[in-house]
Amino acid sequence: MKKDRIKALLMISQIGISMIVPIFLAAFIGNWLDAKFGTGFFFLIFLLLGILAAFRNIYKLTKPFYAEDLKRERQEQAYWENLKKARSKQGGGEGKADGDESETCEANIAAIENGAVKPDAVRTAVKSRRERAEEEFDLWRREREKSHDGGNSHDSSENGG
User: Fold this and answer.
1) What is the pLDDT of residues 94-146, one digit of tens each?
2) Number of structural domains found in the chain
3) Does the predicted TM-score (pTM) go above 0.90?
């Protein structure tokens, strides 16, 4: 988490410097040319060029950051689409799955009452398809984050939404 904060501060500093330097440098050159040639338009032209250069620099700095997010978002979307396809291939509409789960739940309750099965085993057996899919997706996301940052993920909010 501390590493992420340092990274964010460095990015903000880099953005600030990448904006200020071209603007001031171009304004200085424009002012110098105006003084040398006795004109009044070089300052404005160079100031506009400096502003354009600054925004170009910001675009170049932030583009890879957003490209990674877009790539990750597309991978997540493909994952959910594949999950939907797999669900539909299993031949189950939601009604059929819910009926099967309720029958399994009743059988598991009876097994618990008889002492044949531990309650924790039943809890994992009767999870809804959505819960299983969400857990699988969370696991996949954590693995992706670990591989993305070299296994240094220490985010304590992973269990949140």
Assistant:
1) 444 444 555 555 665 666 666 665 555 555 555 666 777 788 888 888 888 88
2) 2
3) no
Which residue in 29, 27, 19, 21 sits closest to 47, CA to CA? 27
- Classify residue 28: in a domain, yes or no: yes
Domain region containing 24: 1-68
Answer whether residue 98 is part of any domain: yes
Residues in Cβ contact with 153 at an 8 Å cutoff, skipping those fewer than 6 apart? 142, 145, 146
Residues 10 and 60 occupy one common structural domain? yes
Are 61 and 118 part of one and the same domain?
no
Residues 61 and 28 in one domain: yes
Are residue 98 and residue 132 in the same domain, yes or no? yes
